[in-house]
Amino acid sequence: MTFRAPQGLRLLYLIFCRVLGWLVLLRRSSPSNNAEILALRHEAAILRRQVERPRMSWVDRAVLSALARQLPSALRRNRLVTPSTPLAWHQCLVRWKWRQPPAKPGRPPLPDEIAALIQRLAKENPSWGYVRIQGELRRLGHRVAAATIRRILRRSGLPPAPQRASRQTWRTFLHTQAHTLLACDFMHVDTVFLQRLYVFFVMEIKTRRVHVLGVTAHPTGEWVTQLARNLLMDLEDRAKPFRFLIRDRDSKFTAAFDAVLAGNDTEVIRTPPQSPRSNAFAERWRRTTRAECTDRLLITSERHLRTVLNEYVDHYNIGRAHRGLDLRAPDDIPNVIPLPAAAITRHRVLGGLLNDYRATPIRPPLAPQETPSSAA
């Protein structure tokens, strides 16, 4: 076990030893001190020959400069700070001022914005090759070599055009086919007198536009077929692009209903039995309509339900935001006016059950007209 003295006691011991050393130096003779100084100088000379040039900090240089002023001129010449030192500093400053960054060999690097644009074009157009992307970039005002495009796509992990095109997902496939699809279905509403009414509607998958074709308490096959004719007459030329109609296996969809659509070159696709997700868009509209409209009202009659649904469909097609349409409505008309110069007005739908908001410009106040007396 070792004994460690307190810090205060150690400090007193060091002070005592230092004072004792000074007393010993006072008792020494001058020849003895001179001999020790010569020995120390010789040791310093030996160390200068064996050790590399020391690296001094600014503190060391300041101390040596201050002490060198008290030395004789003969000894001052051998100090570490010599007249060549400021000259060397000046040369370093000159080299630093006129220093130029080394030029990198080869072409300048492609900007990150152009590389991101190349990756975007490749992802959004799986069938485009390197030369096709090069041509599109040239149309946009950027000249990039096909080899550079190939290197960027390889670096980002994107394969060439044939392999990239074969990786089409179901989401992409459905988006490309959506403009040719229609979906139809029934929804039922119970009135306040417990009478069940049936609503037949059709949705355009691409635009999410809904058409409520009819409301009745006793749907039949002839009634549904006539509504299909009315739909084609209302759509007119817009009915030509639709090539498929999705429906379930309800008995009210007869062969005459399919024949009416076949006259427009529209093929009817029946969903599998007990598979509501196969007609997901129609099922989603039915749920939305019940949550926002019919479940919050008391329907009294067939005429009342028809009036309510017509007003709600106008709101759905014009004033309601849709997630699948980038938070826009199918028939939405942009109405963007800066707030300081616009007033936001509310339009009540279904008596205030729903609301539409529009921005209308604020008219500046008219300047007062001058009367003949004031002008005189």
By CATH's scheme, which homologous superfamily of the domain at 175-325 applies? Answer: Ribonuclease H-like superfamily/Ribonuclease H
Mean pLDDT: 81
Please identify, by name, the CATH architecture of the domain at 175-325: 2-Layer Sandwich
Number of DSSP helices? Answer: 15
Number of strands: 7
The succession of helices and strands, N to C, reads: HHHHHHHHHHEEEHEHEHHEEH
Query: Quick one: biggest sheet?
Result: 5 strands, mixed
Distance between the termini: 116 Å
Residue windows where pLDDT falls under 50 for at least 5 positions: none
Give me the Rg, rounded: 46 Å
Q: Overall 3D geometry?
A: elongated
Regarding CATH, which class of the domain at 175-325? Alpha Beta
Structural category is alpha/beta
Q: Specify the helix fraction band.
A: 40-55%
Strand order of the largest sheet: 3-2-1-4-5
Fold-level CATH name of the domain at 175-325: Nucleotidyltransferase, domain 5
- Strand-residue proportion: 5-15%
